[in-house]
Amino acid sequence: MKTYSRTFPILIHHVDAAGIVFFANYFILAHDVYEAFLAEIGHGIPKAIDDGEYIIPIAHCEGDYRRPMRHGEQITANLAVTELRSASFTIRTDLVGPDQVVRATITTRHVCVSSATMKPMALPTALHKALAEYLRA
Amino acid sequence: MKTYSRTFPILIHHVDAAGIVFFANYFILAHDVYEAFLAEIGHGIPKAIDDGEYIIPIAHCEGDYRRPMRHGEQITANLAVTELRSASFTIRTDLVGPDQVVRATITTRHVCVSSATMKPMALPTALHKALAEYLRA
Amino acid sequence: MKTYSRTFPILIHHVDAAGIVFFANYFILAHDVYEAFLAEIGHGIPKAIDDGEYIIPIAHCEGDYRRPMRHGEQITANLAVTELRSASFTIRTDLVGPDQVVRATITTRHVCVSSATMKPMALPTALHKALAEYLRA
Amino acid sequence: MKTYSRTFPILIHHVDAAGIVFFANYFILAHDVYEAFLAEIGHGIPKAIDDGEYIIPIAHCEGDYRRPMRHGEQITANLAVTELRSASFTIRTDLVGPDQVVRATITTRHVCVSSATMKPMALPTALHKALAEYLRA
């Protein structure tokens, strides 16, 4: 099983008036990692949008917040595929602080739909295979 | 039972490269409604932060996406309290299109914690009472 | 001469780790007012994008920051057209606090270009006429 | 003279309903580079905020947009100090596409102010010296 990780700093505008990262920004940070992951496995989002055969919108997502993230902290995102079906998959991203404490877990379920009909369709075989390498049993 | 609703347009920057509202922006749009709701019931976030007695961070949230929202659409957010406990509550926000179709549902669970200790504490009585008026059985 | 104004509150996520509104968010807040202004004068952005004849991208913008804006403040944006040419116009937006002090001024210069060729083209006559009503001598 | 550069991809949420990067996001992208630059030269923003002696807010900024940036493009930001005074400095960031064409130039003028009085004060000597190494004659 492969893993995908990225480390990035919390920047000034990620934080809100309460002095901690705004809850919605966790989804943006996790999605940025997901977008980099797709590019790395050869299935970047821009090409999929341009090709116009399918898109993979998010049907459901969840955020579990355990400890706040603060400005200047180096956060490591550990991404895994936790479910892989014919036409959908689920990504789990743990956001871990420099103290090795999991600050939050972001989960996103993606469904492949035809760009033409917007109805579910099987994931492209190559993408399905690539995702399978990151599947956590 | 009271209800709280607001209608707002989808603006150009809410939409992403796929031509639909970016999934994380649903949380921002819902939270903007929540912040306006708290102000209306007399418990605005700025005063709570300034007073420094408690904050009410989000411990968990979920997004269920049914239909996309597009640039220029007038969206109505219907907010309800769906759970109310001593130290926590859950807000459900349905985002409804001009066609009366629910585009997405955003759920956020808020826990009241002491600013000093960051440990859970009972919601202020007046806030608990105000939230109770919006509790959907 | 007509004027266009809107009042809105500074929300929790407009503010950054320094406790004041992040400088880039002034442009978002001003553009939100601009988008509402265009809708009000009957030339909303969504229709222009959908029609596909022209777009009016920003060629230049400036921000002058005098006093910070803080969470919970009610800000009034006063919008005026300060320059109007055949194919371009300039919008000036003063962001004024509840104390009547101008916190910042955002200026954006917009150029009408053909969607097909991306070359400058004359503003639609009706839009030019509508903007002229807000021109500050 | 030293230069500071970073390359990053345009992500899905940087782009708006017009299919190009939203103008305000250029300021966010440029500021992210600036924040990384300050960290690299040993004067990170988080420590300055925590220390509470001074902050360096932006007093003025400008954006010049020449060509759009699109989803998936690798953009290189070239940062230089273009003016350095006792209590203020100006940063110029050129955003360059993979085709070596400058897409936009973002300029930000920063003024050092005392956290206590909010009045201008001399830049810390070490920061002034560090910035001088990136000063473009």
3D architecture notes:
- 4 copies of one chain form a homotetramer.
- By secondary structure, chain A is of the alpha+beta class.
- Helix content of chain A is 24%, strand content 35%.
- Chain A has helices at 23-40, 45-51, 125-132; strands at 4-9, 54-55, 58-65, 74-84, 88-96, 102-111, 113-114.
- In chain A, a hairpin with a 5-residue loop joins strand 5 (88-96) and strand 6 (102-111).
- The longest helix of chain A has 18 residues, at 23-40.
- In chain A, 38% of the residues are buried.
- The mean pLDDT of chain A is 96.
- Chains in contact: A-B, A-C, A-D, B-C, B-D, C-D.
- The A-C interface holds A 12-19, 22, 24-25, 71 and C 12-19, 22, 24-25, 71.
Short descriptors:
homotetramer, 137 residues, alpha+beta, 5-stranded antiparallel sheet, two-stranded antiparallel sheet, 3 helices, 7 strands, 24% helix, 35% strand, elongated
Q: What secondary-structure arrangement, pairings included, does this model have?
A:
The structure is a homotetramer of 137-residue chains.
Chain A: E1 4-9, H1 23-40, H2 45-51, E2 54-55, E3 58-65, E4 74-84, E5 88-96, E6 102-111, E7 113-114, H3 125-132
Antiparallel strand pairs in A: 1-4, 2-7, 3-6, 4-5, 5-6
